């Protein structure tokens, strides 16, 4: 658990540390590069869409109790991210009017454990390991098995596994990002009270994750590798925008420090 004086910096995994685009290389062995790119993009799209749909279908505190023989409204709709990932692959394949044998699908699922990192990840994590006062963690929708395999055994991330104090996944609260419960669980796991969530940072390349973290009370650094600028308009004002926008992971530590300095002198 982190020290109460430390700034917690939680890194999203898929789309932030690991590039899901690299799965297209594996798909190209079956369909060629152009078709593989289309399938990989659809696979990621449905993977996220499925998590959001399950969040929407889950119980909430203000849901009315069941009436008569209506289906039980108190049952959470939750599936492990591994199942969601496999099912979204099937959706992507069907959409492209192609198919794969189950054995080949399983090989693609295994490839998710060894996705390539973005080029800026290695130098950023190397530098972060020697920065005092910052406690780093991985925070992901993935299952404990998926994320642990990626962090501890993939060729790109394994050399930096000790940089992360904890690997935290959403399975325990049976919700997916950007549900507020998952960010509150992150705070609890990292030894921060709900009132201290402003001392925590999420680093993500996914705008929905950034908005979710900000809405829950965290600071958030959006990794804008493409340089397109912030475009998400779901929420207005500061709550709907990242605390900082960085072009690479190497800028995260400076962004966190500058924000802390501004608060100290304000």
Keywords:
6-stranded parallel β-sheet, 6 strands, 42% helix, alpha/beta
What distance separates the N and C termini? Answer: 29 Å
Helix content: 40-55%
Total number of β-strand segments?
Answer: 6
**Mean pLDDT over the full residue set:** 89
Provide a descriptive summary of the structure in words.
By secondary structure, the chain is an alpha/beta fold. It has helices at residues 23-31, 33-57, 81-95, 102-111, 121-128, 144-153, 180-189, 207-216, 252-265, and strands at 7-11, 134-140, 164-169, 200-204, 219-223, 244-246. The protein has a six-stranded parallel sheet, sandwiched between helices. Helix 1 packs across helix 2 and helix 7 crosses helix 8.
Summarize the structure.
The protein is an alpha/beta fold. It has helices at 23-31, 33-57, 81-95, 102-111, 121-128, 144-153, 180-189, 207-216, 252-265; strands at 7-11, 134-140, 164-169, 200-204, 219-223, 244-246.
Write the layout of secondary structure elements.
Layout: E1 7-11, H1 23-31, H2 33-57, H3 81-95, H4 102-111, H5 121-128, E2 134-140, H6 144-153, E3 164-169, H7 180-189, E4 200-204, H8 207-216, E5 219-223, E6 244-246, H9 252-265
Parallel strand pairs: 1-2, 1-4, 2-3, 4-5, 5-6
Helix pairs in contact: 1-2, 2-3, 7-8
